[in-house]
C-alpha cells in the first residue's frame, strides 16, 4: 500500500512527458497472443496493471523481456491456461484475454475482471458479441467459461459503444471464419492503436476509429510491432495541473486531436495554452470561468477526465454543472474535495454542482479510485499546506512514475510504502 504526501502551492514549470496510454497498453498485451512468435510493444507505461498482465502472459508460457519502455513478447511456446481470480480481479482489462484466447485457442476460462468501483460495469455486450460469433458462454462460480468449436463472422450491433466490448469482439473476430462487422463500435483512439497493431501483424481490419469496423478472420498473425499512443488522460491531467499551477509548463507527447473536447472546454472558460506539434504549454490562469460538462463516449468529453476537471472547477468563478453519463458512481472523490474546502453538491448519481472559487487546504484523504485519486492529487497540489493521500495505489494504476515526474517540474511530493 502506498501513500502520497504533498506540500501544496508549488509552481509547476519545465517539461513533463506523457507516458504510453494505459487503456491501449492493457489491450495490446493480451492482443499479442494472436501473434505467432515475437512482437514488440514500444512506449509501455510503468503502471501496476502492466505488472499483472505480464504475470498472466507468463502463466500462458510466453517469454517477456523489457528493454527500457519496450516490451518484447514471444509466444512461441504459448500454452492454454485458465486465468485465475487472483490475477483477473486485479484489473478490468483482464477481460481482453476472453476475446484473444477465444481467437487463439477456441476457449477461455477466466474469473470475473476487477477494476475501479465507479459503477456497475457489466460486460454483457462483450458476452453477446462472443455468442453472436458462435461461442458458448457459461458462468460458473464467479468464472466465465467460453468455448467455441467454430467461430463464424457475423454482424454485431453494440447496444452501447463500449471501448472494452469493441476491442474484445475485434480480437475474437480474428478467430472467426469470414467477416465480422461491428456496428456502433466505440471510436476511442485506443481502438485505433490496437487495430493498427493487428493490421501490422497481417490482420484485415477496416474502419477502426469509426462506428463501423470490419474484421476478416485470420488467427495466425506474425511480427507484431506497435507504439503505444501517448495517454490522453494523463496528458489532460497534466494540462489541468498546468492551468492551476503552471509557469510555462510544457506537457510533451500530446496528440492534441485526442484532447479536442478538453482543450475546447478550457478555451471556453478562459484558459489559454500554446499548442505545438506534440506539446501543450500552459500557465496558471487567474480568472477561470464556470461551465457545463457532459461526459460522453469519444470524441465527447472523457469520463476519465471528469474527476480531475472537477478539481479545476473548484477554482472557477461561479457554478459549474457536471453531467456524468457513463458511470453511476464517479463522484466519490468530491466528499474528500469538500473536506479540503471545496463546495460541491451531488444532485444524484449522474449530476454534480461545483461552486467556486474556493480555497483548498491540505488534509488527510483517501483515493477512491484511479481518476478520483488523480482529482485529489490535483487538489493537494493547489492546497495550502500538507495533504496525505492514502490508497495511492489507485493512482499508480494509471499514472506511471507520477511522483518523480511531478517532482521534476517543481512539486513537493513524496511517496511512502505503508
Ligand atoms: N457497458 C455495458 N455493458 C458492457 C460494457 C460496458 O453496459 O458490456 C457500459 C458500462 O456500464 C458503462 C459504460 O458502458 O456505463 C462503459 O463501460 P466500461 O467501464 O465497461 O467501459 P470499458 O469500455 O471497459 C474503458 C476504459 C475505462 C473508460 C471507459 C470509457 C479500459 C480498460 N477501461 O472501459 O477506463 O472509463 O472505457 O471511456 O480501457 C480509467 O482509465 O479510469 C477507466 C475507467
CATH level-4 homologous superfamily of the largest domain: Enolpyruvate transferase domain
Morphology call: globular
Which small compounds were modeled alongside the protein? Answer: uridine-diphosphate-2(N-acetylglucosaminyl) butyric acid
Known CATH architecture of the largest domain? Alpha-beta prism
Overall tally of domains: 2
Q: Walk across the major sheet and give the strand order.
A: 23-24-1-25
What is the mean pLDDT? 96
Poorly predicted segments: none
Gyration radius (Cα, Å) is 21 Å
Q: Describe the biggest sheet?
A: 4 strands, mixed
C-alpha termini separation: 5 Å
- By DSSP, the count of extended strands is 25
Q: In the CATH scheme, what's the topology name of the largest domain? A: UDP-n-acetylglucosamine1-carboxyvinyl-transferase, Chain
Number of helices: 14
Give the % helix. 25-40%
Structural key phrases:
418 residues, alpha/beta, UDP-n-acetylglucosamine1-carboxyvinyl-transferase, Chain, 2 domains, four-stranded mixed beta sheet, globular, binds uridine-diphosphate-2(N-acetylglucosaminyl) butyric acid
Q: What's this entry about, in short?
A:
This protein has 418 residues and is of the alpha/beta class. The protein has helices at 22-31, 48-59, 85-88, 96-105, 124-132, 163-173, 189-200, 232-245, 260-268, 303-313, 333-339, 370-382, 393-396, 402-408; strands spanning 2-7, 12-17, 38-42, 63-67, 70-74, 107-111, 136-139, 143-147, 151-152, 155-157, 176-177, 179-183, 204-206, 212-216, 224-227, 246-252, 273-276, 279-282, 292-294, 318-323, 343-348, 351-356, 364-366, 386-390, 412-417.
